[in-house]
Design brief:
The chain has about 230 residues and is mainly alpha-helical. The protein has one domain. Helix content is about 80%, strand content about 0%. It has seven helices and no strands. α1 runs parallel beside α4, α2 runs parallel beside α6 and α6 packs antiparallel against α7. The longest helix has about 40 residues.
């Protein structure tokens, strides 16, 4: 990590690579994030509406619960777990393939700080783009909950909107951003490490990609617990 955040030799090269990584991570993951988040919000709304039927709790609590659940937990955690499988494995495979083809060795002979050139743009891009994906996921999850709960007739649109406006705490959005930044750093750094130090052939490269996903998911869940304790 110390080598990865070292001073770059040529800023323009790092800028172009960072923009490419931002496109790959952001635009390349937008569809899967949108689909998963919309269905998470829809299922959450339907399940809670079912649980509240016939009880003493007002039905507008469905909108309130979906909003806070998506913002605090589902949007940052589930989105980053999905990205660890999609983006993390891709990073590990990309860098690992360069290591096996001796492209990294060739760059080092030319005097290039390969750790900085290959890893730093990915980390910077992830720290910039993944929080935006998490914000989009939270928004689409809330919209998905609205469509699902009102379309099935379990609650009215006015009740859902009333719940969205009730008991709102901006601090929860801050928690979501903090979680997304921490998770983005974890999944990127672990995946790049697994790829950068891969040895052997195609079997070892496959294992490195698998380890990148598994270790990233475990680390994200542990970090989620720690961040929740620290921020609450």
């Amino acid at each position: 990590m110390q080598s990865a955040i070292a001073r770059p030799e040529k800023l323009s090269m790092y800028g172009k690579e960072t923009m490419r990584q931002m496109h790959d991570i952001g635009v390349g993951s937008l569809v899967i994030v949108a689909i998963i988040s919309a269905f998470m919000g829809a299922v959450t709304a339907i399940q809670f509406a079912y649980q509240l039927q016939g009880g003493f709790i007002p039905m507008y609590y469905v909108g309130y619960i979906v909003r806070d659940t998506m913002i605090i937990e589902l949007a940052p955690t589930i989105t980053c777990l999905v990205l660890a499988g999609k983006v993390g494995s891709n990073m590990a495979a990309e860098i690992g393939g360069m290591r096996q083809k001796e492209q990294i060795d060739a760059l080092e002979i030319m005097g290039v700080n390969t750790a900085a050139y290959l890893i730093a743009p990915k980390i910077i891009a992830a720290l910039l783009v993944i929080p935006l994906l998490v914000i989009i996921a939270a928004f689409l999850g809330i919209i998905g909950g609205y469509i699902a709960s009102t379309a099935t007739g379990q609650i009215t649109g006015g009740q859902y909107e009333m719940g969205l406006l009730s008991f709102y705490q901006p601090y929860f959005v801050f928690m979501m951003i903090v979680k997304s930044v921490v998770f983005a750093f974890i999944l990127t750094s672990i995946s790049c490490y697994q790829g950068y130090y891969v040895t052997g052939g195609s079997i070892e490269l496959g294992k490195a990609s698998t380890n990148a996903v598994v270790l990233s998911d475990i680390a994200i869940l542990c970090a989620d617990y720690i961040v929740a304790i620290l921020l609450t």
